[in-house]
Amino acid sequence: MDTFPKSRMGLLLVLAASILYLAAAASEEVKTTALRLAPVLLFVAGMSVTVNLAARTGAFEAIARALEERVKSEWALWLGIVGLAIVSTAFLSLDTTAIMVTPMDFAVA
Q1: Contact yes or no for 60/105 (Cβ under 8 A)
Q2: For residue 88, which of 39, 42, 40, 54 has the smallest C-alpha distance?
Q3: DSSP-assigned letter for residue 29
Q4: DSSP SS3 for 52
Q5: 2 three-class SS
C-alpha cells in the first residue's frame, strides 16, 4: 500500500522548488509578491480542507437531495441554488460561495 501518493509527491516537489527559488532569488519584488500571495494561498488551502471534509460527510449530497425533494421544476431548483449562493455570499464571501456551492451544483446535476 502506497502511503504517500505520487500526486502529493509532485505537489511537494513543486512546493520545495518554489521555496528554494524564493530563497535563492531573495529580491525585494519576489518577497513582496510572496507576502501578497500568502493570505490568498492560505485561504484556498483552508477552503479546500473545508470542502473536502463537507464532501466526505455527504453535506453537498444532502443539500442537493433536500432541494430536489422540495421543488418540482428545474427552474425552481435553479432558483434554489441561486438563492443559496446569494445567502452564502451575503454572510461569507464570493470566493467562499464559489468554492462551496460548486460541488453542490455538481451533486444536483
Answers
A1: no
A2: 54
A3: H
A4: helix
A5: coil
60 CB contacts (<8 Å, ≥6 apart)? Answer: 54, 103, 104, 106, 107
Q: What gap in Å lies between CA 76 and CA 63, rounded to an integer?
A: 15
Q: Where are the alpha helices (DSSP H) in 1-109?
A: 6-25, 28-57, 59-70, 74-91, 94-108
Gap between the Cα atoms of 67 and 75, Å rounded: 12
**DSSP category for residue 81:** H
Is residue 101 within 8 Å of residue 81, measured between CB atoms? Answer: yes
Q: What cell was used for 42? A: 492560505
Candidates 24, 13, 40; CA nearest to 96 is 40
- Per-residue confidence band for 26, with pLDDT thresholds at 50, 70 and 90: low
Residue type, 72: K
Q: Which of 20, 21, 42, 22 is nearest to 32 (CA)?
A: 22
Q: Model confidence over 44-78: pLDDT tens digits?
A: 888 888 888 888 888 888 887 888 888 888 888 88
